[in-house]
Design a protein that fits this description.
The protein is of the alpha/beta class. It folds into 4 domains: 163 residues, no CATH class; 93 residues, Helix Hairpins (Orthogonal Bundle); 118 residues, 3-Layer(aba) Sandwich (Rossmann fold), CATH 3.40.50; 79 residues, Alpha-Beta Plaits. The chain has 21 helices and 10 strands. The strands form 2 sheets. A 6-stranded parallel sheet has the order 3-2-1-4-5-6, with helices on both faces. It has a 4-stranded antiparallel sheet with strand order 7-10-8-9. Helix 16 links the parallel strand 4 and strand 5. The protein is extended.
Length: 517
């Protein structure tokens, strides 16, 4: 009976939008590294840790004021709430129970209470005994003042900061990745300490050295010597002891050099990963992001134009020499293989990406990326570069929004120049920003006062701009050329193509932003 109730309750939670919304909020608050609210909560917890540690240290030799007690009690309540929240969001038990039930239905078996309880207990026990959970629990213990011995757990409250400091977490991940090398160094150091302390005790123990009374003293001397600390409280008095000391100091230097080399190399290897995390965090906060995959000559020209238009964009390329210019211009960039699904997922699918421009010189790579994006997010506009005329049709079949064939474009420009050089020069001056007159596009993507009004009613004519066309709907394929200013009413998702002074176009954008509902 209880087994059926737990299964029914799991289905109830899965169908409850309110439950999912609340749990998602707490997951974003406590665990989601890409959440916009998590950094504020992290800063709040770090502040509480610092304040409460200061209070607990002050409490050692002073009597706490009433307001300090209130602050500490409040902080502990927050720490308890945090632990309970993490305990709750640590696993989606409802999904595991539902999956268990569906597997039973396929196999034609009956549910067992013991199996359901095993699923629940295993998941929650795993979290309770995880290192960070134990640190969180131990951080609460120093609150109980009657047990003065618990003051030792004060250090665990400081360890809580590790959870919220990405740099420290990255450093520990580096050490973890070099576990084999560090294990070898520890084994080598342990062997050197044991061997040298044994020799030292044999030759200088038993009253020969007044400072060595036991084997523990010899071990202490070996550790202090191999770490090159050298307090000088225990020094060798025999020739053998002095020879061992020389070799031990040399071995200590060697071990320290090896350890430093391992950490330095590991940090160097991980710098790209650390920087990648910062970039992902940065673009996660952006809206209407444009992603340029491939930063060759075409990508560089495109990025320059996007910068002039004050667009949010980033560039991605695998080759350091291509990214050097992006770094010099202070663009947002990432070194990554654009053909890998993981790169597309982290950059395109997990952020507010408006358009993706594929500018690599490999049609197979561009087509593969296009298919991947359209398979998961058809709403993202994709502009693809075709390097071969035969592949243009393939890109359109794969649902590219627009295909650029650079060689054809160059030829058409040349023909236009030969046919009418004066007209070409005028357009060229506009497009490459040689004058203040520019050709631009304004997207109506949010509710504002312009929607539902005619062009004349919006007052755009007062800004001395010329509206060339209106691109309709989200796919922008339905074009209205030279719309009637008195009768055409602007709609949501329209794109207004206009020509005029860039300052006046900027004023229209600002007026539209101010009127956003």
């Amino acid at each position: 009976m209880l087994a059926k109730f737990l299964i029914s309750f799991a289905y109830f939670l899965e169908s409850s939008k309110k439950y999912k919304r609340v749990k998602t909020f707490f997951y974003n608050l406590l665990e989601n590294p890409r959440s916009k609210i998590k950094p504020y909560f992290d800063a709040f917890i770090i502040s509480l840790v610092v304040i409460t540690v200061s209070i607990l240290i002050y409490d050692v030799d002073h009597h706490l004021a009433y307001h300090m007690v209130i602050i500490e009690d409040f902080a502990i309540s927050v720490f308890v709430f945090e632990w309970v929240g993490r305990f709750w969001v640590s696993a989606n038990l409802r999904l595991k129970i539902i999956k268990y039930h569906e597997n039973l239905l396929e196999a034609g078996k009956r549910e067992k209470l013991s199996e359901i309880l095993k699923i629940i207990v295993n998941q929650k026990i795993a979290y309770i005994f995880s290192p960070m959970s134990i640190i969180d629990l131990l951080a609460i213990l120093p609150t109980y003042r009657p047990l003065r011995v618990l003051r030792i757990f004060l250090i665990f409250r400081l360890f809580k900061i590790f959870r919220y400091t990405k740099s420290i977490n990255s450093f520990f991940k580096v050490l973890k990745d070099k576990k084999l090398e560090f294990n070898f160094l520890v084994l080598l150091g342990g062997f050197a300490v044991f061997m040298s302390s044994t020799i030292m005790f044999v030759f200088e123990g038993g009253g020969k050295n007044p400072n060595i009374h036991s084997f523990l003293d010899a071990i202490y001397w070996a550790i202090i010597t191999i770490t090159t600390v050298g307090y000088g409280d225990i020094t060798p008095v025999t020739l053998t002891g002095k020879i061992i000391t020389v070799f031990l100091v040399a071995g200590g230097f060697l071990i320290l050099v090896l350890a430093t080399s391992i950490v330095t190399n590991a940090l160097s290897e991980k710098m790209d990963i650390v920087r990648e995390g910062k970039v992902l965090s940065q673009i996660n906060k952006m809206e209407n992001l444009i992603v340029i995959l491939g930063y060759g000559k075409m990508g560089q020209v495109l990025a320059d134009e996007l910068r002039r238009g004050h667009n949010n964009f980033m560039v991605v390329d695998l080759y350091e020499e291509n990214l050097a210019k992006a770094k010099e211009l202070n663009y947002i960039y990432m070194k990554a293989d654009v053909s890998k699904y993981e790169t597309i997922k982290n950059i395109v699918f997990k952020n507010d990406v408006k358009k993706v421009v594929l500018t690599t010189d490999n049609d197979s790579v561009n087509l593969s990326i296009l298919l991947t994006i359209k398979a998961e997010k058809k709403s993202i506009g994709v502009i693809a570069r075709a390097n071969s005329y035969e592949n243009i049709r393939k890109f359109y079949i794969a649902k590219a929004n627009y295909v650029i064939f650079p060689y054809q474009t160059v030829a058409e420009v040349a023909v236009e120049y030969i046919g009418s050089s004066v007209k070409f020069d005028a357009i060229d001056n506009i497009l490459v920003q040689k004058s203040s007159i520019t050709l631009d596009e304004i997207d109506i993507e949010e509710e504002n006062r312009y929607i539902g009004q005619t062009i004349e009613e919006t007052g755009m004519d007062d800004f001395s701009v010329t509206i060339i066309a209106i691109l309709k709907d989200k796919d922008k394929k339905n074009l209205i050329f030279n719309p009637n200013h008195k009768t055409y009413k602007i709609e949501l998702n329209d794109s207004i193509v206009l020509i005029g002074d860039e300052k006046n176009i900027f004023k229209i954008r600002q007026d539209m932003i101010r009127s956003t509902a």
